[in-house]
Design goal:
The chain is mainly alpha-helical. It has helices at about 10-40, 50, 60-85, 90-110, 115-140. The longest helix has 30 residues, at about 10-40. The two termini are about 25 Å apart. This is Protein SYS1 homolog.
């Protein structure tokens, strides 16, 4: 009997689908968190909040709330890693991939790499939070005790 538990077969279709899923989770929940923040301060919604590095800043209330939305999004994405990736060893890989594609998106949107220190600090902190919490959740699930003998014991 061959078990498919923890199969290590190279499956590029699965990996690409997981990357696309994590990107959808990242941008979907970031949009929801930003919409929640915007409703608190009655601000207008814009793609600048997601892709413009100038929005993230410590000087304004909108900038600080946007940073909070990014940090809350990293917690939500850590749950996505736990539900859909389910491997502690792959959490850092998928986290870096999600943030790398976000950086590419910001680069295209702004026509140059983000130059604000606050953008880099927020994204590095979000990467660390997402990877560490996602890995913790996955490792906790992976290390659960596996019941070996669940049948009735017989006296021989």
């Amino acid at each position: 009997m061959v078990s498919n538990f923890r199969s290590y077969i190279w499956d590029p279709v699965l990996i690409v689908c997981q990357i696309v899923l994590m990107q959808c989770i990242y941008y979907g929940f970031l949009g929801l968190w930003l919409a929640g923040v915007d409703s608190l301060v009655h601000s207008s919604r814009s793609l600048d909040q997601i892709f413009s590095y100038e929005v993230l800043g410590f000087a304004t209330m909108q900038g600080r709330l946007s940073m909070m939305a990014f940090i809350l999004n990293s917690l939500t994405c850590a749950l996505g890693l736990w539900f859909f990736i389910r491997r502690g060893k792959q959490c850092l890989d998928f986290t870096v991939t999600v943030h790398f594609f976000h950086m590419i998106g910001c680069w295209i949107y702004n026509a140059h790499l983000p130059s604000a220190l606050s953008w880099w600090l927020v994204n590095i902190a979000c990467m660390a939070l997402m990877a560490v919490i996602g890995e913790y959740l996955c490792m906790r699930t992976e290390l659960r005790a596996i019941p070996v003998n669940t049948g009735p014991k017989s006296n021989l």
